[in-house]
Amino acid sequence: MKVVLQHLTKKFPSRQKKGEDVVAVSDFTFEIPDGKLIGLLGPSGCGKSTTLNMICGLEPPTGGHIFFGEDDVTRLPPENRGVGLVFQNYALYPHMTVRQNILFPLQNLKGEARPAKAEMLRRAEEAARLVQIDALMDRKPSELSGGQQQRVAIARALVKMPKVLLLDEPLSNLDARLRLQTREEIRRIQRETGITTIFVTHDQEEAMSISDLIVVMKEGVVHQIGRPQDVYDEPKNLFVAKFLGTPPINVFSGEVRGGVLYLGEDGVLCVKGVGDRKVFVGVRPEGFLLQAAGPLCCTLRAVEVMGRDRSVVSAHPALLGTEIRSIIPSDEVLDAGHETVRFALKPAKVHLFDTETEARIPFEA
Ligand code: ADP
Ligand code: MG
Questions:
Q1: What would the pLDDT profile of 21-70 be if each residue is shown by its tens digit?
Q2: CA of 216 to the centre of ligand 2 (A)
Q3: DSSP readout, 258-296?
C-alpha cells in the first residue's frame, strides 16, 4: 500500500508563549512507495512522532491530506486505517501470556472483522513465528528479555495484517547489541511481509542501515529524502551533512580563490565552477589521505587504534570545532611521534556550503 502525504502540517498551541503556535510538522509532501521501508530521521523534537501519529490517526492534522493508496484517510479514525503500531515502550499486558497478548487485537475486533477462534490462533502463531518467539507463547512478559518483549509487540502489530506498519523508536529501550540484532530482524520481517513500513529514529546509523529511503527532518521541516547512500554522498545542506555519519563530518571555514579551496593558508583542492567566496567546508572522516607532502597541515593530537582502521585526531586553525577526526586504514604508515600530520583530501568526500543558506555548492574537482 503506498502512502501519500500532501502538504501535511501540524501546529500546536505553544506551551511557552500564549497565542503562538509551534509548527511540529510543516508542509510535508511525499509519496511513500508500496512495500518500502522508510526511515524517518531527525533530532529529538523535529516532528517525527507527530508525523507518525497523523499517519495512524491519533493526531488530526491542521492542514494537508493523507492517502492510503487512492483513499483519503485524513479524517478516518485509527481503528479503520489498518495500521500496525509499535512504540518505544512495548506496553504489553503483564498478566497475559505472550499468546494472549498477540491475540488481543484480534479479540477486540467487532462483527464481521472478527475472525473465528481457530483462525485467530493460526494468525497469532504465524505472527509469532515471523518474529521468532513461537517457542515462548506461554510465558508472561516479565519472563522475557527486552528484545523478546519488543518482538511480542511487533507480532501484536502484525497479527491484524496491517496495510502499513509504523514503528516509533522501537529499539530505544534495548541495549546496543540487541538493537543491532533487532533492527536486522525488523528489516527481515519487513522484506518477508512486504508491508509498507515507516521507522522513526533519531539514530542516523540505525536509519541508514535498514531503510530503502530516509527522510531527514529538522524543526518540522523535511530537509532531504533519498536513498541512504545518496543522501550521505550528496547532502543538500550542512545540517544533513552533519547529521549523517559517525564520526561526524569535519567542518572548516574556507575560502575559494582562483579556483582553489583554501583552509587557512593551505590550498587543499581545485574546485572548478566556484567563484571567489567564503564557504563552509565539510570533510568526511574517510576523506583524508595520509601524504608526506599533502597540502593540509594539521597538528597531531592522538592516534586511536580501532582494529581495521585507525582514528587520527588532529587540529587545524580553520576548523570550526574542537578536533578533526579522520579515519585511515591501519596498515598505512603514520609516525605518531610527529607533531604535525599532512593530508590530501579526496574530492568526493569534500562538500562546500554557502555560509548564509548552508546549501551545498556543487563543484568539479
Ligand atoms: P520527535 O518525535 O521528532 O522527537 P515530536 O513530533 O514529538 O518530535 O514533537 C515535535 C514538536 O512538537 C516539539 O517541539 C514538541 O514539543 C511539539 N509537540 C508535540 N506534541 C505536542 C503537544 N501535544 N502539544 C504541544 N506541543 C507538542
Ligand atoms: Mg518522538
A1: 999 999 999 999 999 999 999 999 999 999 999 999 999 999 999 999 99
A2: 14
A3: TTEEEETTEEEEE-BT--SEEEEEEE-GGGEEE-TT-SE
Protein residue with least CA distance to atom 13, ligand 1? 45
Ligand 1, atom 24: closest residue by C-alpha: 12
Region 295-300: mean pLDDT is 97
Which of 8, 9, 20, 22, when mutated, tests ligand 1's pocket best, judged by the most ligand atoms within 8 Å of its CB? 22
Q: Provide the grid cell at 331.
A: 596498515
Name residues whose C-beta falls within 8 Å of residue 225's C-beta, 6 or more positions apart in sequence.
30, 213, 214, 215, 216, 231
Q: Measure 244 CA to ligand 2 centroid, in angstroms.
A: 18
How do residues 332-344 score in pLDDT, each as one tens digit?
878 777 899 999 9
Please state the CATH superfamily assignment of the domain spanning residues 3-242 in this structure. P-loop containing nucleotide triphosphate hydrolases (3.40.50.300)
* CA nearest ligand 1 atom 17, residue: 24
Reported pTM: 0.93
User: Pairing mode, if any, of strands 71-72 and 63-68?
Assistant: antiparallel
Ligand 1 site residues, Cβ closer than 6 angstroms: 12, 15, 22, 24, 42, 44-50
Confidence check: pLDDT of 176 > 90: no
Q: Whose CA is nearest to atom 16 of ligand 1?
A: 45
Q: How many CA atoms lie within 13 A of 121 on its CB side?
A: 3
Domain ranges of the chain: 3-242, 248-361
pLDDT digits (tens, 9 = 90+) for 53-112: 999 999 999 999 999 999 999 999 998 899 999 988 778 999 999 999 999 999 988 888
